[in-house]
Amino acid sequence: MMSIVSYRRSIRSIIKGIWIRILSLAAYISFPYQLTVFLHKLRGVKVGKKSHIARYVFIDDRNPDLVEIGDGVAITTGVIILCHQRDLKNYKPGMYAMENPFVEGKVIIHDGAHVGIGAIVLPGVTIGEGSIIGAGAVVTNDIPPYSVAVGVPAKVIKSYKQD
Questions:
Q1: Which of 89, 27, 93, 72 shows the shortest CA–CA distance to 54?
Q2: What is the predicted pLDDT for the residue at 121?
Q3: pLDDT, tens digit, 9 for 90 and up, residues 104-138
Q4: Does residue 121 form part of some domain?
Q5: Rounded-to-integer distance, Cα 160 and Cα 88, Å
Q6: Mean pLDDT score, 91-96
Q7: Is the pLDDT score of 8 beyond 70?
Q8: Exposure check for the chain: N or C terminus, fewer CB within 10 A?
Q9: 121 forms bridges with which residues in the sheet?
Q10: Which residues lie below 8 Å from residue 7, measured CB to CB, with a gap of 6+?
């Protein structure tokens, strides 16, 4: 579920935001993957056992706590996972895009999923167990379990029966 959010910033939230962004930068360039996973966990990302997060992965720096990554997930280099975007429902000529509020949504990547190089996962998306997201795909909608999704926007091209 996605929600529209407007923010009033307190000193505490500003300091928290700075801390999250510092950890985000460290995680972006860190290695080995165990350190990368640890740094994302410090930021508030929920990461399951035996999951791999490569270097140069950007996980939302505004709401990392809205990202849940299951067990045995592989997130490869260059992936972007976003939990916020501008709500353009009321956008019209003459407006600046920045005048529109943010829409936020949880991103859930279930056990055993694989997110290919350079894929982008947008807010409010759930990637099903064992699913594979192709390189460069833009995931705008939920992907069912044991599916292969590719393209812009990502579309399921193959599904596997669960035993």
A1: 27
A2: 98
A3: 999 999 999 999 999 999 999 999 999 999 999 99
A4: yes
A5: 36
A6: 89
A7: no
A8: C
A9: 81, 139
A10: 13
**Residue span of the structural domain in which 32 resides:** 2-158
Using a 10 angstrom Cβ sphere, with 0-12 exposed, 13-18 middle and 19 or more buried, the burial of residue 95 is exposed
Please name the residue that has the structure tokens 């930021």.
Answer: 43
Quote the tokens at residue 134.
């192709």
Q: What total of structural domains would you count in the chain?
A: 1
Q: What is the CATH number of the domain that holds 141?
A: 2.160.10.10
Residue 102: φ, ψ to 5°:
-85, 150
Angle (CA) 7 44 127, round 5°: 95
**Between the CA atoms of 147, 151, 153 and 155, what dihedral angle is there, to the nearest 10 degrees?**
-30
Does residue 132 sit within a domain?
A: yes
What does each C-alpha distance from 144 to 31, 75, 159 come to in angstroms? 31, 18, 8
Catalytic annotation, residues? 84
Q: Six-digit token pair at 11?
A: 């000193």
| Separation CA 108–CA 143 (nearest Å) | 10
Q: Quick check: is 24 in a domain? A: yes
- Copy the structure tokens of residue 19: 């801390």
Report the pLDDT averaged over residues 20-47: 93
